[in-house]
Design a protein that fits this description.
The protein has about 220 residues and is mainly alpha-helical. The chain has one domain (about 1-220): 3 helical TM bundles of succinate and fumarate reductases (Up-down Bundle), CATH 1.20.1300. About 75% of the residues lie in helices and about 5% in strands. The protein has a two-stranded antiparallel ribbon. The structure holds protoporphyrin IX containing FE. Protoporphyrin IX containing FE binds next to helix 2, helix 3, helix 4, helix 6 and helix 7.
């Protein structure tokens, strides 16, 4: 078992499974965040409900941190090995898929940018300013105020737009690769899977993008 996990195929499985964990998280995080378009109280109450359930919160955070560490370290080890084996790559994949695209060749660069985004994102939101509010008599953190304050700054909005576009490419290629690594990808399915991967990535990125743009354009100064 350990030998399999250390093999190239085994490590691609690990990349896929840890990637799937984050794919599930970003989709739910994006969907929950859409409450910002509905009402400040609902947005704050949603955030409060999540942080109040310590078991779910710490459980989910542990899984996310573990998946991220595993994803990044496995990516680094596969990249180093790939570099060593340069020259033995296929120009066309054996399953008939086209050769490497710019998106697939820059996965490491995209991943590094997404990682930098996650770190700065946590610093500004999760560990950022603590405003207080009261919703239906319950005191809680005013996350809505913090989000609106930050997304009124053009530099901050621009950084989100760039990071979310990079995330879209990373997710679309990642979602497609999972099928390939797990061996689900027969030749006739390639087009459908590529469409599915792009649809998923566009929904996540467009949903997230609508939030800073809504605040900046409609709730601005
Ligand atoms: C417009 C886009 C986004 C907005 C407005 C947003 C907003 C927030 C806010 C307000 C929090 C703090 C929640 C709390 O402490 O209660 C948070 C946490 C977090 N966000 Fe985002 N987010 C966005 C995009 C993303 C993206 C693209 C990722 C990942 C690639 C991400 C990953 C996280 C993570 C990991 C946490 C910490 C969750 C936890 O441990 O409790 N976010 N986000």
């Amino acid at each position: 078992m350990l030998d399999f996990l250390k093999s190239t195929v085994g490590r691609k499985y690990i990349m896929g499974i840890s990637g799937l964990v984050w794919m599930g998280f970003v989709l739910t995080h994006m969907a929950g965040n859409m409450l910002i378009l509905v009402s400040p109280d609902l947005y704050n109450a949603y955030g409060h409900a999540i942080v109040s359930n310590k078991l779910v919160l710490y459980g989910a955070e542990s899984v996310l941190v573990l998946a991220l560490i595993v994803h990044v370290t496995t990516a680094i080890s596969l990249t180093i090995e790939n570099r060593k084996a340069k020259g033995t790559r296929y120009a066309v994949n054996p399953n008939g898929d086209k050769g490497p695209t710019l998106a697939s060749q820059t996965m490491g660069l995209q991943g590094s940018l997404v990682l930098a985004f996650i770190i700065t994102h946590l610093a500004t939101f999760k560990y950022g300013k603590e405003y207080e509010t009261v919703v239906n008599g319950v005191p809680m953190r005013d996350l809505h105020r913090l989000v609106v304050e930050l997304f009124q700054q053009p530099g901050y909005v621009l950084w989100y737009v760039v990071a979310l576009i990079v995330l879209m490419f990373h997710l679309s290629h990642g979602a497609h690769s999972i099928f390939q690594s797990f061996g689900f990808l027969e030749r006739k399915m390639v087009k459908g899977v590529r469409k599915f991967a792009w649809a998923y990535a566009i929904i996540v990125a467009a949903g997230f993008l609508s939030q800073p743009l809504y605040v900046y354009l409609l709730k601005g100064n």
